[in-house]
Design goal:
The protein has 365 residues and is α+β, with helices and mostly antiparallel strands. Helix content is 23%, strand content 33%. The protein has eight helices and 20 strands. Strands 11, 12, 13, 14, 15, 16, 17, 18, 19 and 20 form a ten-stranded antiparallel beta sheet that branches. A six-stranded mixed beta sheet has the order 6-7-8-3-9-10, sandwiched between helices. The chain has a four-stranded antiparallel beta sheet with strand order 2-1-4-5, with helices on one face. β4 and β5 form a beta hairpin.
Length: 365
Amino acid sequence: MASIELRGIRKLYGSVEVVGRLDLLIRDGEFLVLVGPSGCGKTTILRTIAGLEEPTEGTVLIDGRDVTAVPPRDRDVAMVFQSYALYPHMTARENLEFGLRARRVPQDDAASRVADVSRMLGIDALLDRYPRQLSGGQRQRVAMGRAMVRRPRAFLLDEPLSNLDAALRSQVRVEIRRLHRELGTTMVYVTHDQVEAMTLADRLALFDRGALQQIGTPDDLFDRPANVFVGSFIGSPAMNILDGAVAGESGAPAVRGPGFLAPLLPGAHSGLDPGSAVRLGVRPHDLRPQPELGHDDPGFRCAVEAIEPLGSEVHLHARGEFGRITAQIDRAALPRPLDPGDTILLAADPARMHLFDTAGARIGR
């Protein structure tokens, strides 16, 4: 196992800054997920750890040793690629053994490692097949196994599930998490899929345009997003963001905007004067339709645009003076059948509101 530290890492391609002065510590044995939209720099960071990219500035350390100038083969890390990168003319067994032969591992030891890893991954019956004879999920397991037989100090995984269908992604995701528990090896995993990030990570680091937005446990980022970008990226459906202003006298716990009044917990907007512009974040699963639509009732007054039935829940898409809003509602909680065009009032628990300033930074708790 190994700790990995990036100190002041910056990467430029010409005049374009892809990663901007990043400091990041990955703990020994940790499963860290680098997540963010395409083009945010996360794969560049992974390749910099592997030695496949040279940073413009900064230092890469593995177990406290400066490896910035050390070639990839001498860093003792293994990378699993999105494309599997299996040799098509070799059987699964030969693909697994290839790296061991290159390192002159004794044949008996190599055979033992291949047998152990293939059993762990459930591919022991596939060892004599060629990649063309394997499904996508089986190829991915062979690619994982090729990294595992090396017994590296760290695994680097670059969107390894993106070529799989949804059902298989879910299955392999569970297997990767199980493997991490069994192996205890440091893993750094890149994805743009926030479901993968949330379900796999001990901690996740969310990037946007080469900058680290927030790092923490999945619950940290979901429950206390540092800014509007984090709140909108983490969670599905995405957090609703509405523009409003602090309402009432100083200390009054509410935000008012066009077509809505949202009570807040006392003290949630400490230091903000009445009339101060703010941005309100409300997660779709925290919204509930109210049976009455009184003129002075707090909530979000809107008209139903579309209803997506999803078994035990529905996704309700509506529009008010404030813009669009999405609610994720238990079907049993609907007070009446709803149709497009119906007027409704949606309300949320004040304890579940998120408050941001006009620049997008979190306010308060």
